[in-house]
C-alpha cells in the first residue's frame, strides 16, 4: 500500500465483511423491506453503504467529491450481494493507491473543508452507522442469530 494505511483498511474491512454476513441471512422476500414509510429498503441501504464509501475514497484521490454511483438495477438479494462484493473489491483497490499527500490534502464537501484523513474516517463512521441500521432491519424481519458487529482480524 502506498500510504501506510494498512491498519485503517483492515479496520474498515472488519466492518465491511459483516455486511456480507448480514446479507447472507436475508432472502429475496426482504430485498425491498422498509421498516417505515420513507425509509431506504434493505437492498437500497446495503447499496448506499458501499457506494458512499466508494465515493469518499474516489473523492480523496481526486481531491473533490462526485455523487456516489447509482446502482439500482438489482432485483434479488443475490444481486445486492454481488454489488456489495464488487464495490468492496473496487474500494479496496482504490484505497491501495491513495498517497499520503492525498490523505493530507483538503477537500470541500457539504460546506466543510477538511483533509482526506477526516473524510476517510467520516466514510467509515457513515458505513458503521448504516450497518447498525441494517442490523436493526435484519432483526425486524425475524433473524434471531446475527453476526458480531465486526469480524476478527484473522477472519478478513
TrEMBL record:
It comes from Lentibacillus salinarum. This is DinB family protein. SUPFAM superfamilies: DinB/YfiT-like putative metalloenzymes (SSF109854). Residues 14-134 form the DinB-like domain. Coiled coil: none annotated. Gene3D superfamilies: dinb family like domain. It comes from the Bacteria. Pfam families: DinB_2 (PF12867).
Amino acid at each position: 500500500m502506498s500510504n501506510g494505511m494498512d491498519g485503517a483498511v483492515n479496520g474498515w474491512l472488519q466492518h465491511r465483511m459483516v455486511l456480507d454476513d448480514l446479507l447472507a441471512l436475508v432472502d429475496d422476500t426482504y430485498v425491498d423491506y422498509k421498516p417505515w414509510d420513507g425509509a431506504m429498503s434493505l437492498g437500497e441501504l446495503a447499496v448506499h453503504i458501499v457506494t458512499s464509501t466508494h465515493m469518499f475514497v474516489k473523492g480523496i484521490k481526486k481531491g473533490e467529491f462526485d455523487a456516489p454511483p447509482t446502482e439500482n438495477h438489482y432485483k434479488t438479494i443475490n444481486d445486492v450481494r454481488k454489488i456489495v462484493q464488487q464495490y468492496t473489491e473496487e474500494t479496496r483497490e482504490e484505497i491501495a493507491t491513495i498517497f499520503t499527500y492525498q490523505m493530507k490534502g483538503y477537500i470541500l464537501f457539504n460546506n466543510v473543508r477538511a483533509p482526506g484523513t477526516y473524510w476517510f474516517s467520516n466514510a467509515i463512521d457513515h458505513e458503521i452507522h448504516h450497518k447498525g441500521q441494517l442490523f436493526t432491519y435484519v432483526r425486524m424481519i425475524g433473524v434471531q442469530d446475527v453476526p458480531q458487529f465486526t469480524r476478527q482480524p484473522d477472519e478478513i
